[in-house]
Design a protein that fits this description.
Blueprint (H helix, E strand, L loop, with lengths): L5 H10 L4 H7 L6 E2 H8 L3 H9 L6 E2 L5 E3 L1 H15 L4 H20 L10
Helix pairs in contact: 3-4, 5-6
């Protein structure tokens, strides 16, 4: 999570008795999934997934050998992007919508709980 600082993570590592690989699997931002798996999950082809990365809609992690790896967060962004594309939104429009949705989500996290924006 964005609000966690390094000391908090260190404390949680001591308290958390799970294996490192278990924590990594639960991390929504860990780049774990190869492009073929992502394409299969989303019901599309590898070329479409690659193109969305090339357009900057998602920024997958890379292995030492340069292979793309996607996180669960990026898979969700790709799913949202595919939905928007199906509605006729252009790639620059998709990128802008995703940026604005991220901004709204951040504003909600930053808002005072008593005066926060509604979650709807």
């Amino acid at each position: 999570m964005d609000w966690e600082c390094s000391w908090y993570r260190q404390v949680m590592d001591v308290v958390d008795d799970r294996e490192p690989w278990e924590r990594r699997l639960e991390d929504p931002d860990a780049p774990l999934y190869p492009i073929g798996v992502v394409a299969d999950l989303l019901g599309t082809d590898v070329g479409t997934i690659r193109r969305y990365g090339d357009l900057g809609i998602v920024r997958p992690g890379r292995t030492g050998a340069g292979q793309r790896r996607y996180s669960r967060t990026e898979i969700a962004q790709l799913a949202r992007s595919l939905d928007l594309a199906a509605e006729g939104v252009s790639p620059p429009g998709i990128r802008r919508i995703l940026d604005l949705e991220d901004e709204v989500a951040q504003l909600r996290r930053d808002a005072d709980p008593g005066e926060g924006l509604p979650a709807g």
